């Protein structure tokens, strides 16, 4: 219970610091959303109209007053309204989140389907041809930018072969190219990581003890070595989740996929501050929750951590 309260306090403190820093830097960024809003239909505007809208939006108030007013609304679960669409920011994010989560988890599935078998075989057959191929795959995958890989997939599967849609959202086929683009880019890193972790696990004393007790090689590998090797893999995955979410922004724009990433890019172009602020907080909360789940998974994957936790309790 004490640990849960500590986690909750850290989460609230993190969100507060993140919201304040992002609010200050956002206001300091160049560009005037008021003039963009008034010029959106290419009509002439007067200084009086600009000042009137600035007063209406509260831009003429001191920065700390603007932040305090936003914070009060935030604690009421009100992230404000988009300057451009006049829709509640929270509702816009909720509408876009399922699409981004679908892309994220499908990319993770592609990554695991590639990294797990290749990384495992590379560890089992160290310095064999499959291991050399995994190194080449990792090198190429880590060197190729994801957006360039996406363009290659679009050119091949959409333009030349015409078998997959290049843009938009509709059916499962619309997810294939974006998921492959992100999944292959991630798999290149995790192939080598899983290989190294498995080789390290196979050299541990508890593996030698298991062999001495006469356990089968399959049981030793899958129930002991493989499970132990997942701890550093999941650790790195939790840390790199921010990079994955950043990658979805690029891919969503590239494939015109209507997710949260595409929404925030359009908001940045339009200086739509409420949408930008809401996106930053949403991503911050999402990353914190994923890292919390990673910490909890240690207790299952690594018995030593579970035993130490039990001793402290």
Automatic annotation (TrEMBL):
Topology in the lipid bilayer: Multi-pass membrane protein
InterPro entries cross-referenced by the UniProt entry: BPD_transp_1_N (IPR045621), MetI-like (IPR000515), MetI-like_sf (IPR035906), Opp2B (IPR050045)
Residues passing through the membrane, by range: 12-29, 101-124, 136-159, 171-191, 233-256, 276-298
Keywords carried by this UniProt record: Cell membrane, Ion transport, Membrane, Nickel, Nickel transport, Transmembrane, Transmembrane helix, Transport
ABC transmembrane type-1 domain mapped to chain residues: 97-298
A Gene Ontology cellular-component term: plasma membrane
PROSITE patterns noted in UniProt: ABC_TM1 (PS50928)
Pfam families linked to this entry: BPD_transp_1 (PF00528), BPD_transp_1_N (PF19300)
Compartments reported by the entry: Cell membrane
Gene Ontology molecular function: nickel cation transmembrane transporter activity
Major localisation: membrane
Family: Belongs to the binding-protein-dependent transport system permease family. OppBC subfamily.
The protein's assembly and partners: The complex is composed of two ATP-binding proteins (NikD and NikE), two transmembrane proteins (NikB and NikC) and a solute-binding protein (NikA).
NCBIfam families, alphabetized: Opp2B
Protein name according to UniProt: Nickel import system permease protein NikB
Organism: Cytobacillus oceanisediminis
Lineage of the species this protein comes from: Bacteria, Bacillati, Bacillota, Bacilli, Bacillales
């Amino acid at each position: 219970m004490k640990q849960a309260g500590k986690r909750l306090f850290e989460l609230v403190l993190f969100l507060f610091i993140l919201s304040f820093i992002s609010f200050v830097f956002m206001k300091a960024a160049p560009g005037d959303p008021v003039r963009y809003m008034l010029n959106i239909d290419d009509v002439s505007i007067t200084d009086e109209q600009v000042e009137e809208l600035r007063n209406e939006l509260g831009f003429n108030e001191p920065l700390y007053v603007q932040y305090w007013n936003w914070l009060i609304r935030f604690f009421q679960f009100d992230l404000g309204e988009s300057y451009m669409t006049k829709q509640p920011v929270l509702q816009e994010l909720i509408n876009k989140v399922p699409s981004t989560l679908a892309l994220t988890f499908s990319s993770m599935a592609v990554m695991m389907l590639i990294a797990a078998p290749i990384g495992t075989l590379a560890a089992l057959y160290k310095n064999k041809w499959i291991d050399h191929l995994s190194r080449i795959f990792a090198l190429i995958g880590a060197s190729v930018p994801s957006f360039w890989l996406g363009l290659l997939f679009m050119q091949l599967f959409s333009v030349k072969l015409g078998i997959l849609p290049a843009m938009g959202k509709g059916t499962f086929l619309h997810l294939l190219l974006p998921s492959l683009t992100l999944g292959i880019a991630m798999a290149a890193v995790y192939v080598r990581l899983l290989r190294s972790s498995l080789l390290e696990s196979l050299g541990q004393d508890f593996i030698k003890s298991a062999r001495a007790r006469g356990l089968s090689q399959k049981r030793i590998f899958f129930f002991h070595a493989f499970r132990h090797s997942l701890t550093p893999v999941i650790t790195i995955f939790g840390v790199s989740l921010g990079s994955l979410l950043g990658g979805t922004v690029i891919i969503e724009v590239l494939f015109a996929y209507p997710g949260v990433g595409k929404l925030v890019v359009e908001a940045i172009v339009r200086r739509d501050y409420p949408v930008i602020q809401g996106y930053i907080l949403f991503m911050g909360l999402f990353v914190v929750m994923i890292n919390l789940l990673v910490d909890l998974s240690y207790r299952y994957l690594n018995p030593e951590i579970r035993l130490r936790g039990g001793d402290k309790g």
